[in-house]
Amino acid sequence: MTGALAAEWIKLRSVRSTCHVLAVVAAVLPLVALMAWNGATGWDSGTPEERAAWERAQPLEEAVLPFVQLCAAVLGIMAITSEYATGTIRASLTAVPSRRTALAAKAGAVAAVSLAMGLVAVFAMHGIARLVIGGRPLADYDEPFSDAVPLLLSSGVSVAVVALVGLGVGTALRSTAGALVVVCGLLFVLPVVPAFLPSPWGERLAGVTVSDLAVQSAGGADDPLLPPLAACAVMAAYVGIALGSGAALLLRRDQ
């Protein structure tokens, strides 16, 4: 297993899309600084009503998190679909005959890289926003940093969750475009659906979306559907279903 993990780490580093994903996520940080500066400027020059709106604004790292999750999904998807596209999947499965081991090793490499990327990104975005905004009471940035840590940690973990879901869907579909459609539906379409459903079904569906699960797992939701441990279990179920489906189809195929 150690050799398989080392091999997957080397392959993940050699895939061009990995460098592109990391570069895109890094490029978001100056954008967050610009958004924070805009918020600070708006606060300084705003009327009392405008300032009240700024106080209720969503923290910038939460607003940008879906984009970081999408980048992580691309990382996970390309980790497997690039091998199908180039035909190197045959060599990979020859080197590691156990397909479960091969997929587990790939999942380990993807999880490690995406978790590090997610944690660095959310903490950096929060730190930049807090530094630029200063002591202004915008989006809770004037609260103690320790109060934000649980949500920042769960947000970073959610990035790894989406990456592993992307890996599982990519393994199942063997198509970059198809897997991206599925993950985009999960990240951007599913959270919109609850608005069109009657109560309480809308609230229940909203409570099991990835974005809401990250907040609930940190214990930061105002009216949570699930307690923190249950929210963590549902996020784990997303990963289990995606990777389980991918593994089942991988075992049934010739390659």
TrEMBL record:
GO CC, any one term: plasma membrane
Superkingdom as given in the UniProt entry: Bacteria
Stretches that traverse the bilayer: 21-43, 63-82, 103-128, 148-170, 177-197, 228-251
GO molecular function annotation: ABC-type transporter activity
Protein keywords: Membrane, Transmembrane, Transmembrane helix
Keyword Membrane (UniProt): yes
Record-linked Pfam families: ABC2_membrane_2 (PF12679)
Name of the molecule in the record: ABC transporter permease
